[in-house]
Amino acid sequence: MAVHVFVGPSCPEPLVRQHHPDFVVHGPVRHGDLFPQGYSAGDVVVIVDGIYHHRLALRHKEILDALARGVTVVGAASIGALRAAELDQFGMIGVGQVYNWYRDGVFDGDDAVSVAHSETGSLAGLNVPLVNLHTAVLVAQEAGILTQQAGRGLTERMEREYYPLRTQERILAVARERGERAFADWYTACLAADPASFDQKRADALEALALAERLGSRPPGTRPPATAAGRPAQPPKACAAPAPSATSDRDWRTEYHRRWRNLFAPADPTLRHRVAHQQIFAAYFPEVWWDFLHRRAEAAGAGSPGGLRDHVLRQLGPTAARWHDDPVLRSRITTLLCPLPDLADSREADLLLRRESAEDRARVTDWLERTRHHLDAHPERSLAQISDATCARLLRLIWNVRTEAELSTECTRRGLPSLRHAAVALRPFAIGYLGSRTAQQPFGGEAGA
Fold it and tell me: What is the dihedral of CA 89, 90, 93, 96, to 10 degrees?
């Protein structure tokens, strides 16, 4: 059982290690960080800081996915408090005053906790987060330095400033402009005596780490305590079964969620490329995909002998069920039913790669390396510059088809819902494929070779 913490300017790594030397410390959390299988059931993840301005932020469904795997997720202080206020009803544990403020509607924008900082070197914040100013205002009101009206006016004025500009100097200037010189002098003196005087984010982060220490030492199988909102922490209901039934509540596991899992979760980072290579270049892959649909339907039906036929009957009706046994008409089924595989599920990945050879794996490595070298040598180029039309021409050549209709049908026979999806799968290999053809290297597994 391990405790992982994602921290940055709110709670620097040395401070974490000073109090909790056994914790696994990560930088600010970002999109994809919770998918890897390194987080096991029983582990605790504490989310404090995160990237969410110039890079993709941690998505809500990444947290739901971790909860569904039995990981306890705690949020506080910054993006952790935001996500906890949004997901505490699903089992995420919120800690601290900032979480309470978001939960109760005192703040509703992410700029209230936003801190500008460098991506490299020191992660020290360059501005004062609004929640810390709010803390100072509340203390000043209790001390009689500010009236409630003056405190509200100062906070509202700073809310109109772009968050990186909310520096200590700017706060003092605005306070003096508003006639609150006593507050400015008091605020300056307090911070000179203790720079963490009003650092609510830091205080909340330390509270969350202390909770994580207790959670990390609980006996195996013990449920986490109630959340700050008073609800028991438990995984989302939609995760309880392998697949939702037709009558269950709406499932949160959308295609986007599955794509994120396929990108970040597999232990082998080339797995999605290996599957894509089979889809594009293996002449036999339509048979593999048809078998995959059968096995997947059987698993969803808990071994029901009807399998894919019954699934087609339920989803598409009796006419479609008759297509099942016709080798020609079955392509209508693959056109209408084209699920996105879960490559984080080893069973599904193994089914799709069951006919992959050592030569195939070597070719994937070679072609991806050729692509990397080409793009490194030509930084002005990108795979996005390979148009869908170019991909379509290459696919017609690879699959030995001529018309748009034949191309579209072949896509779905290979588990690719559209030409756009096929182009995405092909692009990382296009440079290597064209290079191999130029060198006239035969590849026996190629469709249409």
Answer: -40
Q: Which residues pair with 25 in a beta bridge?
A: 5
**Host H or E run for residue 72:** strand 72-76
Q: Which of 397, 384, 375 is nearest to 423 (CA)?
A: 384
Residue pair 72/233 in contact by the 8 Å Cβ criterion:
yes
Give residue 412's identity as a one-letter amino acid code. Answer: T
Dig out the tokens for 47 from the structure. 């989310």
> In Å, what is the CA distance from 411 to each residue of 215, 247, 285, 326, 332?
49, 31, 11, 19, 12
pLDDT of 246 reads 35
Handedness of CA 434, 438, 441, 447 (dihedral sign): positive
Q: What's the whole-number mean pLDDT along residues 329-344?
A: 88
Contact 150, 178 (CB under 8 A): yes
DSSP character for 96?
S
Give yes or no for a contact between 260 and 61, defined as CB atoms under 8 angstroms apart: yes
Alpha-carbon distance of 165 to 114, in angstroms, equals 11
Q: Give the tokens for residue 321.
A: 């069920």
Residue 80 predicted with pLDDT over 90? yes
Dihedral over alpha carbons 226, 231, 236, 238 (to 10 degrees): 150
- The reported pLDDT for the residue numbered 121 is 55
pLDDT score of 322: 85
Sequence-distant (≥ 6) Cβ neighbours of residue 321 within 8 angstroms: 309, 312, 313
Given a contact cutoff of 8 angstroms between Cβ atoms, the answer to whether 71 and 41 are in contact is yes
Angle, in degrees to the nearest 10, between helices 79-87 and 60-68: 70
pLDDT at 238: 36
pLDDT by residue (tens digit) across 143-193? 999 999 999 999 999 989 888 888 999 999 999 999 999 999 999 999 999
pLDDT digits (tens, 9 = 90+) for 12-36: 899 999 999 999 999 999 999 998 7
Would you call 136 exposed, middle or buried from its count of C-beta atoms within 10 A (0-12, 13-18, 19+)? buried
Task: Single out the residue of 171, 183, 105 nearest to residue 133, CA to CA.
Answer: 171
Contact predicate 215/44, CB 8 Å: yes
Q: 388 burial class (0-12, 13-18, 19+ CB within 10 angstroms)?
A: middle
Extract the tokens encoding 376.
Answer: 């490194």
Two tokens at 169? Answer: 């100097």
Output the pTM of the full model: 0.79
- Assign 158 to helix, strand or coil: helix
Instruction: Supply the Cα-derived Rg of the chain in whole angstroms.
Output: 27
